[in-house]
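Hi! If you just cloned this repository, the fastest way to understand the data is to look at a raw example. We've pasted two of them here, unedited. The first protein comes first, obviously.
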Amino acid sequence: MSIGGTSGRAPGAEGGGRVTVAGLHRMTRRGDRFACLTCYDATCARWLARAGVHVLLVGDTAAEMVLGHARTIDMPLEVLLALTAGVRRGAERAGAGSVVPLIMGDMPFMSYHLSEDAAVSNAARFMLEGRADVVKLEVDAAHAGLVRRLTRAGVPVCAHVGSRPQRAALSGGYSAAGRTEAEAEAVVGAARAMLDAGAVMLLVEAVPDGVAERVVGAAEAAGGVPVIGIGAGPSPRGQVLVMHDVLGLTDRAPAFAEPLAALGPLMEGAARQWVQAVVLGNVKASPYTAKAPEAS
């Protein structure tokens, strides 16, 4: 099935088949929807680009999905920069007719907390070394000054409001946000503050439908700023999930993520076949032949 018409290009793609911030803004104003997935390597980026995924989020969830940590805060900045650059390279090598998704780099724990100067420097590294199009920060209203400064510096910001996994240690674990009226006001207030500060996108995580609708309403009032949801119901025009959950690679997906494939068992089955082939000696002969001796 083609994405966005017979051209095979995703809606929001500019000339040359690229999804851009400006393109996503136009989509949002038209009422179109766009799909996002996390991605952590060039090979997966190539396949996701071929599928027409609009946005690839190189998330700090790589700490769990790639490095085997139990918490996203264990994601090293240097590693995430390298992964972001790899995703960019893979996305651009998807082949003719494929859209180049927008690449979003996720600023990890303590990469923007110690000082605004350090935050701007690290965000610049995502743009230059990671070749990200946008950087994502988990924020509340107190981060408005930082987002404003990043915007002045030319760094497009996706402001992540609602549940913020980097702060899970303060509440004893991952939890939803906006479930009381006071919490809902804080989420919507943070979204408005980020829009006023110049955020080019919002991401709202793990909130009730009504709270997400209010965030989307604030973004529409600000000129049609795109909103991405995860565990926030259908109102956000953009929707993101962790790729491993969608592909059925995790042992247990969150309640809001429905696996659309079962690649884990397929991977296990293929590996078992390879083990059996090796044990039984059923390995192909070498495809390489010996060279004939050169004439003296």
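Ok, and the second one:
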Amino acid sequence: VTSVNRDDQPDGGAHIFARTIEEIRRRVPGCRVEVLIPDFRGDWDALDVVLAVRPDILNHNTETVPRLYRQVRKGVVYERSLELLRRSKEAHPEIPTKTGLMLGLGEEKEEVLATMQDLAAQGTNILTLGQYLQPTRDHLPIVRYVHPHEFAEYQMLGEALGFKHVEAGPLVRSSYHAFDQAESAK
């Protein structure tokens, strides 16, 4: 379950996420639900609303390395994303947490590794790494295409850092092999 940012809602859409999860479970008993949420602009009460309905996986995409945050994620703060993942894990250690990075925006390998270390330190269970693809000419350009062997290296490094599941490859997106990710995070 995902949505565009709901800054028009006082709680960033937290109650909509929660009601949607509850309704899916009511209509399809046994259905597992992964929720991809915004940072709620640091409104931790809103995060608690989502956590209270216990999604099967709580996903919040970090998207990029700290140096590129202002360009890539206007209005979003890297440390707030880390705090969201940490708070989620502290409040409900039984709920797997997940995040993803887009590569090819100009980040350096050392920056990716440092970001992966930050994410692992928050107790994040699942990490996805994929190639950034420019959706339109109005979006940021691709700085470089990351070679598949680099993705394979990041996958091995992520596993060594303790992530329960790492998906890394040019076409990987947040939902790529989601069932397998959920199984490995148990």
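That's it. A detail worth noticing about the second one: Helices lie at 14-27, 44-52, 69-72, 78-91, 109-121, 148-161, 178-185.
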